[in-house]
Amino acid sequence: MELKEIKEFASGLSMWAHVATIGSDNAPDVTPVHPCWEGDTCWFMCGVDSVKARNVAVNANVALHWQVTEVGDGVELWGTAELFDDLDTKRRLWDGVFDYDLNAFAPGGPDDSPETGFIAITPQRATVLRQYGIGGIQRWKA
Fold first, then answer.
1. Which of 18, 52, 127, 140 has a 20 to 30 Å separation from 9 between CA atoms?
2. CA 112/CA 38 separation, integer angstroms
3. Full residue range of the structural domain in which residue 103 is found
4. Domain total for the chain?
């Protein structure tokens, strides 16, 4: 399986995924996010002082799990994450990458939302589960 197929399958699932990060206390934190792809990078918007951002600064290893469909199809993805809060990245991502209006969450737009950043996930491996794995499991590794 290729990463392209993982991205296509994930895009056909829910718009929501749950990201797991690890804090400085070595405890996991899981929160919902709305991931979108730009090339082979998976992005989501976050607060620069959020638990997600603080955890990624301590430990870049993350996992994503897209919400499964009614029949149990899902995607799990593991990778390394990095927070970006620079103006060039914000401007590039603000229009055209995400499939929702980022202004609803950061009305100042890219130029006047200093509390807003984006986390980039570089995928390392992924699993597609069909019907919770009963209908087949496919794996990808970088």
1. 52
2. 23
3. 3-141
4. 1
- The CATH code of the domain that includes 68 is 2.30.110.10
Residues in CB range of 60: below 8 A, 6 or more apart: 80, 81, 82
Region of 130 (left: φ > 0; alpha: ψ -120 to 50; beta: rest) is: beta
pLDDT score for 22 = 97
Task: Label residues 74-102 b or e (16+ Cβ within 10 Å = b).
Answer: bbbbbbebebebeeebbeebbeeebeeeb
Q: How far is CA 127 from CA 20, 39, 65, 102, 135, in A?
A: 16, 19, 10, 29, 13
Q: Express each pLDDT in 12-54 by its tens digit.
A: 998 999 999 999 999 999 999 999 999 999 999 999 999 999 9
